UniProtKB/TrEMBL annotation:
UniProt keyword annotation of Coiled coil present: yes
Coiled-coil region: 52-79
Record key words, sorted: Coiled coil
Protein name (database record): Phage protein
Record SUPFAM superfamilies: Sigma3 and sigma4 domains of RNA polymerase sigma factors
Domain of life: Bacteria
Amino acid sequence: MIKIKFQWLKNYIELEEQIVYLKWNINKSKKELFRWVEGDLTDVMLTKDSDGSKLEKVIEELEEQLTEQEQLKESLVLVVDTFKGIEHKILKLKYIEGKSLESISEELSYSPGYIRQKHAELRRRLEFLEEYEAYKFKLNQMK
């Protein structure tokens, strides 16, 4: 139950990582395209099947993937906003909105000590789940 309860945080983090990687890949591809169009590779002859000739299409596909991932992230945040309970609120404010535990305590009208204690408890539970999943994966690999 706990695994499912906080699966949204894992999904959010994965989406964030994918978005960062896609942005990096788009930037890298645009720089490479610039080299072919205006840079040091303008004198090099491209063939129909060369990677350089496909860069514009690659960039377009990467940008579509980026848009899709950003939309998924936005919809996940909307779903998380519907969750009840202080645990979800703490995790959302801390890991999605990037707020400090002090500001979370002010926003939720709880003492800073309570929020720190609750956050530490959540972290221990999430770390346990990750260790348990890794252990289960390792056991399944041995079979």
